Amino acid sequence: MPHKLASVELSRLLNSAVKNCEGEVLGYIHDIVLNPHNGRIEYVRLALVTDEVDTESSSIAVPWSQFKLVNIAADIELDISPEVLRVCAKGPEGTN
Fold first, then answer.
1. How confident is the model over 4-45, as pLDDT tens digits?
2. Are 60 and 84 spatial neighbours (Cβ–Cβ below 8 Å)?
């Protein structure tokens, strides 16, 4: 579903915190990938927030259609738990 904002500068999205519905920070927008044919955002590379125990930095590509711009100045929302997002980022066992 297209976002209702007329335009958004991509530079404002980069490094923005992404939170889930409960307000937990899931990560930060590390990169934005555009479709070269229509100029629309295809997906966002999300740098995940890691626990103190987990020193390995990880990221995941998430389709732009899954995000909700709550407040462009502060809140970008993704409806997923941090645990599920980490599992998705690791991928199936044996593929890393």
1. 555 677 888 899 899 988 889 999 999 999 999 998 899 999
2. no
